[in-house]
What we know:
Elements: H1 14-19, E1 23-27, E2 30-35, H2 39-48, E3 51-54, E4 59-64, H3 68-75, E5 88-94, E6 100-108, E7 113-117, H4 122-131, E8 138-141, E9 146-152, H5 156-161, E10 176-181, E11 184-189, E12 198-204, H6 208-219, E13 225-227, H7 229-238, H8 273-282, E14 286-293, E15 304-307, E16 310-320, E17 327-334, E18 343-348, E19 351-358
Parallel strand pairs: 3-13
Antiparallel strand pairs: 1-2, 3-9, 4-7, 4-8, 5-6, 6-7, 9-12, 10-11, 11-12, 14-17, 14-19, 15-16, 15-18, 16-17, 18-19
Amino acid sequence: MTGSGDELKRTPYTDFHIAAGAKMVPFAGYLMPVQYRGIIEEHRAVRSGVGLFDLSHMGEFEVSGPQAMEFIQKVTTNDVSALAEGQIQYSCLPYPDGGIVDDLLVYNLGDHYLLVVNASNIDKDFAWLSEHLIDGATLVNRSDDFSLLAIQGPEAIKLMGDLTDFDLAGLHYYWAARTKVAGKEVLFSRTGYTGEDGFELYIPNAEGAHFWNAIISAGKKYNLDLIGLGARDSLRLEMKMALYGNEIDQTTNPIEAGLGWIVKLDKGEFIGSEAIAKVKVDKPKRKLVCMILEDKAFPRQGYEIYDGDEKVGQVTSGTVSPSLGRPIAIGYVAKRLAKSGNRVEIEIRGRRFPAEVIKPPFYKKEK
């Protein structure tokens, strides 16, 4: 990827995005596509068919050495020792006070681990991890060596099946493999940030054009759509997937954010474990909830949430759901209001709109 100083970095696919008519915007130091045909159309394409995302702005760190597992156990909340080779887990990097440095994916690739972090946090995360590095563990920032493409949607497995002879049916969710795809060996995983089935491919930059063209060609019979950052956000929001800087940050604790399932306190001491354990015992004062608004409105991050005249929380993410056709919001509310069925009000431009707390996620697939 190119770029220096204040210049925006370009991914290996930037010219393809521009040629496809994408609206390009600055994002985390990169020039990225926010939309092509439109956010609603792209969102629905992923829910009903298949879409292709450029996620090359994400960060990748390699951790190796005899103490690699010990190091990752120290700096993350989840239990890395539970990972088999090829398996992936969702986790987060905690501060000593229990706040969140970042959320991330941890891949066990046998001879090393791969940490996949958020684009806007690459420098901060690398500095944090370097500060806590232990003897016997080596940390390398490979973020500029790889591009990342995601194929997401109900038709993803068919499209991917046309690109590889690998047994995709045997590759379970949150597992990775290294095999030939489109004639070239590459690391890919059955992961995503949409709530749909899909795959993410870690591609050496020099091979970017080859994989892009191969996926576009194979995708024609499945009506593959190009998907921008706008639809990526609305897709994850419908599934109540946390976004760093919105639902989680330095001021939030994993327990109040509903991420207790990625905190394994019984694995032994790690950074922030004492503070997180205290919140778990004392119970959080607020909780992250899903809310559906009853009237036409557009909830956004930062809007206040009320119970009568009492301010009880704040919206962290909001949109009009392309799947439901209704305004939806995620936000923190006082613990007493966090149960499904409770009613609150969200203030939007001086007017209060009634909303109901519901059980996540917003979008539930028909079985």
